[in-house]
Design brief:
Blueprint: E1 6-7, E2 10-11, H1 12-19, E3 25-30, E4 36-46, E5 55-61, E6 70-75, H2 80-103, H3 114-138, H4 146-170, H5 175-182, H6 185-190
Antiparallel strand pairs: 1-2, 3-4, 4-5, 5-6
Length: about 190
């Protein structure tokens, strides 16, 4: 949750400041590779604006010196460990959503025609499947995350494009022939 949400009429960031004198509870959460990660948690209970039932809100830090905590909400009967364990399982979904929106352009659909949106909603996850598959195959010291793979893929495309343009020029193509083949028409006209 964002820190500006109000629990019992008070912003979560303000409640965090009020609770700082209390010692946090240490919660251990198992990660996918059987490792454990510790979080320092303070629990609050109450109602958020526009929600009709009581919630448990966690103010969570990865280490005691962390300035800006994360805020999590769940039903009151959930324990802190279960809330954090559930969120850790969702993290991979958040990463995929980020890349689909920011890197593959799924958030830029507002001015498109319905048919284009419909096709792109299928194309973007297919592109992401390609990224994940290639990441698993090629993972090494330089490829630490999917963003590194996307960067490598773009560099490969740029290299292929430049190689093809230079080859066409060396084979006797004039600048007037090469530019329109590899550059958008408006840019070629400006040159």
């Amino acid at each position: 949750m964002k820190s500006n949400r109000k629990l019992n009429g008070t912003r979560l960031s303000e409640q965090h400041l009020k609770e700082q004198h209390k010692w946090p509870t240490r919660v251990r959460v198992a990660k996918a590779k059987k490792e454990e990660r510790c979080y320092y948690v303070r629990q609050l209970e109450g109602r958020l604006e526009e929600i009709a039932f009581e919630l448990r809100v966690l103010i969570s830090k990865r280490h005691l010196g962390q300035q800006h905590p994360a805020y999590f909400a769940s039903t009151r009967d959930c324990k802190a460990q279960a809330i954090l364990q559930g969120y850790s399982g969702r993290w991979s979904c958040e990463v995929v959503n980020f890349y689909l929106k920011c890197e593959l352009g799924l958030s830029d659909f507002r001015l498109w025609r319905l048919e284009a949106v419909d096709k792109y909603v299928v194309a973007a996850p297919l592109a992401w499947a390609y990224v994940e598959r290639r990441f698993v195959k090629e993972r090494d010291a330089q490829l630490k995350c999917c963003g590194d793979l996307i960067r490598r893929h773009r560099e490969e495309h740029a290299e292929e494009l430049l190689t093809a343009a230079v080859k066409m020029a060396l084979d006797g193509g004039s600048l007037a022939q090469v530019l329109p083949r590899f550059v958008k028409r408006e840019l070629a006209d400006a040159c």
